[in-house]
Amino acid sequence: MAGLGAGVLIQRYPLLYEVLRWIGVGYLLYLAWEGWRTEREISPERVDIAIMAGALFLRGFLSNVFNPKSILFFVSVLPTFVGTGPGAPSLLIQMAVFGILYVGIATAVHGTIVIRAAQLRPWLVEGPRQQTVRRILSVALALVAIWLAWTTRR
Fold first, then answer.
1. Whole-model pTM over 0.70
2. Which of 154, 5, 7 has its CA nearest to residue 77?
3. Phi-psi bin for 4: left (phi > 0), alpha (psi -120 to 50), beta?
4. Domain extents for the chain?
5. What is the pLDDT of residues 69-109, one digit of tens each?
């Protein structure tokens, strides 16, 4: 999106940035509220993943697309690395390379988190600690949303 001019649009229309920012903050607050109030378990052993796959994919997609920090990164930092000189590759190639690097790094980080979470799962979500852990993580999500709202303001 940054390569296709989203950065220019967001710079030209600050209201657009604010809308995207508040959608991201609101989504984090929604996830915090959902985690706080529900006791629904979505672990693979307890839910048919084939049924939930679409919803889980959509949740991950929305979390990434409306993340104010990643929007800010792609709009403000990424364009400084795009070459426009006579010998520079096309914008499409440059953005594809940056996109592949970003996805590769994000996949490594998220994969590490998933593997570690799987190792901690028995301690975190089984037995009497489940509700306490769910509430702690919900508060953490709400704090992240507040932090994002504060640090991404213009």
1. no
2. 7
3. alpha
4. 6-151
5. 676 677 677 777 777 778 888 878 887 888 788 878 888 99
